[in-house]
Structure formats: C-alpha cells, structure tokens
Amino acid sequence: MHTSLQVRDTVGQGTLTPEIFYADTLLLLPEEVLLESGCAKHKAVLIADGKFAEIDRREALLARHPELTPIELPGKLLMPGFIDTHHHLTQSLGKSLVFGEPSEIFKRIWVPLEASLDEQTLYLSAKLAALEALRGGFTTAVDAGTRASAEIGSIAKAAEETGLRCVLGYICNDLGGKESTQDGTAIRREAERHLARWAGHALVAPSLAVSIPEVASDAMLHDVAALCAESGAIFQTHINEHLQAVERSLVARRQRPLEQLHAVGALGPQTLVAHATLVTPTELNLLRDTGTAVAFNPVASAWKGNAVAPALQMAALGIRFGLGTDGTRSDAFRLMDAAETSQRLTVGLATGDSSCGGGWLWLEHATRAGADAAGLKGQTGEIAPGLAADFLLVDLDVPEMTPSWDRPWELVRYANRDQIEAVFTNGRLRLWQGWPVDWDASALLAEVREAAGAAVQRAPIYRVHPPSSKHRAMTQGSLEIDTALATGAVYSS
How many angstroms separate the CA atoms of 459 and 231, rounded? Predict the structure, then answer.
C-alpha cells in the first residue's frame, strides 16, 4: 500500500504514526489553528462523533477532559479542508488530452470521453479524481454531473471509499445536441429520485444540474431550480464561460445565458453557476440581488478560457462565490495562488491594487465561503463546534514559511501540497503524507493505467492540438524550413 507510517516530530519527542488518530475521540494540540478570525496559537481542538466538539484554550480544554490523552502536534497547522466548488470527477482519465486545446473542449473531448465510460471506468475515474482531490487538500468536491449513461452510484461509491465529501450532480438536460426533445417527465422523476436517494448521507449530498442553459428547456431550467430550492439542494450549470456560448444564446433568444436563467426564474440562493467569466455590470447585479453563488475557476480560465471572472468585483458586491478547479488540477494551494494572480494580472496591475484581496480573501473563499456556495454552510468549511471534522494537518516547519510574519498570505503564496501531513473527513483519517491509510492506491493506479487506454480509444475524441513532442517536432521543422528559405536553400519532396 502507498502509505508512510511515520513523520518526523519537529521537537524531537519521537514520531507520530497514523494509528494515534484512529480513535473516535481526539484531543489535538496543534501549533496553530486556522479559525474564521485567522491563525491562533495555544488552542486545543476536541473531535468527537465525527464533528468538532470544542475549540478552546489548551489549558481550559485539558482541564475539562482529563480522561483523554492529548496529541501534541508541534509545528503543525490544523486548518479546514478546502472546498472545490466545481469539479468533473468523471473526466480524470482524459486529463492532459485537453492541453493546448481551444475553448469549448467539452464538445470535442469531454462529452465523447464520458459517453465511452461504462460503470467500471466511471468508478475508476471518480476514485482517481477523489484521491487527487484529497491529496491536494480538498475534503469536499462539487461534481457537476456526468454525461455517462452508467449508474452514477459508482461516483458515490468512489467518494465513500476514499472519504471525499461530494456534492453529486444529476444532469437534467432535456434538449439534445440537435434540439431533439427528451422525456421531461421522466427526467423530473429521476431528479426527484436522485434527491431522495442521497438525502442525509454521511458524505454525499445530492444536486441537480443542467450542463449549459441551451441544452434544457425553459420549463426544465425552472423546475430543477425549484426542486433544489424545495429540497435544500443546489442547482448547478455552466454560465457565460465562452464567447461562443454567449453569442449562440444572443442569436437564439436575444438573451445572454445568465439573463435567460433569470427570465425563467432559475437564479437564487440554491443556484451555483460555474465560471461567469463574461458578465456585464447588469449581470453582476443579478447575481448579487438573487443571492446566486458562483464557482470561480481561475486555472480553467488560464488553461482554456476566454476571460477571467471578476472575482474582486464579486467580493466587493457581496456576491457569494467559492473557488473551483473545473477538474484542471487538484491542488488547493496552487488554486488559491492562481485566484490571487488572476486578479492581480487582470485588475491589480491596471489599477495599482497591490493587495488584490490581501491573501485572506482567497483563503476564505477556498474554505468557509466555498462551503456556503456549495450548499454546505453550517456543515463544513471551518473549524467550529458542531461542524463536520473535515480538516488538514499542515507542516509549518519548512524553509518556505520560516520566519512567519503573515500566515494567511504565506498559505496563499508559499504553501505546497507536500506540506499536508494528514487529511480527515468526518473526523476520520483518510490520507497520511499523501496516501490512503485503509486502501491500496497503487492497485487503483495500476487498474487505471490498464483501463484508460481503451476508454480513450473508443471515444470519438477530436483534438486540434498535437501532443507536445509532436508539436515540438513540427515547430522545429518549420523553423528549419524558414531558415533555409531565408538563406536561399531549395527543398524538394
């Protein structure tokens, strides 16, 4: 199994092993605790029944619980697990196939790939993605729904086995790619069944989704948003991400996609829109006034987008938003860095804003505010009594964070995934030094390597960009030709 059983103790008092965290009740004494107000020292955290039970001064908590053996964690930060507010857990078998591709890759790569997945490859893809997410510090991921026809219970199974908290989307598109109408009544019935099936689950929360507004009727958009509002679930859709989609909507309806959602009554506190990169001032006001949440995906914008969402403006307006990977790279620290950098490049440089959120803003929206956007407010996202004990132990005793003058800024700009010593959800240790403690990750990777080739091979994927090695050869070849022509050399076939 991929699991390291020891980590050095920063004060030389021996070694920590994962076994000491296996108890149902834990009294933890970390160097620092990341609370809503910032990083605090001299705190103790009591975990019982999968929840944070008490957070108090060390002396007070130790006095109240003399029956417990405290676990000293010198040089460790106890912080909330990160929330990925927009993921595609069933796209992990493709990953770098999209590198260098122009926008709207879902049409040429993701839809064909997901359609090729059977129940086993759907499960493998989701489990691989869940493992990557946990390794990157995400304890929760919002899955936007899969286009695979296989039973999506396989995704829930992967979440359960890895320990990833998952908001599981069920796609309710009732218009096909060629405007062929699907059975709306059957879709609504399955949507209601999905909401009921996962209600109250320990790790899986149900959600309904429409891929993009143009693939659903106005009635379906309205109904699934209303179903989510009634059941306390979230409604997900991709919105205003690419110029092509905005222009198609304008031509077909004389409305932008976000305006269409508002017109049919699908915006509201239950709605989480992914991207919102191309938004007008009026649309920003719509998001604010309706209480709609946004999944801000800065890495996706950098890798294949047409624009960067105005996250700083959203924050100033009080628009709810969290950070999402869009399945690009499951590394929470690098995601926060990308969020800050994107705003610095698009807004800060032009306006002389050297702060661009002051560091704390991105940490907030990657955790507590992200949980709110994901429909999990009051369940996870912060270290507070009564919430699920979803947290990380992060090693602070590293050169990059020594000396420390401003911990939130340091977490955004300096922290790395390899500092994550342990990952917990529902108070249970899931990963130790990057690897699962109770299942064989090496066996999963081997199975994925064996199955991925066939899944990709049978999918009618169309790539515009060649692999990097071929691109290099083509580029070097063209340079040689250009040089030859410049010197008067003549080439013949």
Answer: 36
Q: Report whether pLDDT(177) > 60.
A: no
> Tell me: the pLDDT tens digits for 40-76?
999 999 999 999 999 999 999 999 999 999 999 999 9
Instruction: Say which CATH class 82-373 falls into.
Output: alpha beta
Distance CA 475, CA 481 (A): 10
Residues in the chain: 493
What is the residue extent of each domain of the chain?
82-373
Q: Say if CB 142 and CB 87 are below 8 A apart.
A: yes
Distances (CA, A) of 219 to 31, 184, 188, 216, 265: 54, 9, 11, 8, 10
Q: How far is CA 103 from CA 98, 249, 277, 306, in A?
A: 10, 17, 13, 7
What does pTM read for this prediction? 0.93
Dump strand ranges (E) for 144-292. Answer: 165-171, 204-210, 234-239, 271-275
Kindly indicate the confidence band of residue 107, based on its pLDDT and cuts at 50, 70 and 90: confident
Query: Can you give the C-alpha Rg of the chain in angstroms?
Result: 24
Handedness of CA 153, 155, 156, 157 (dihedral sign): positive
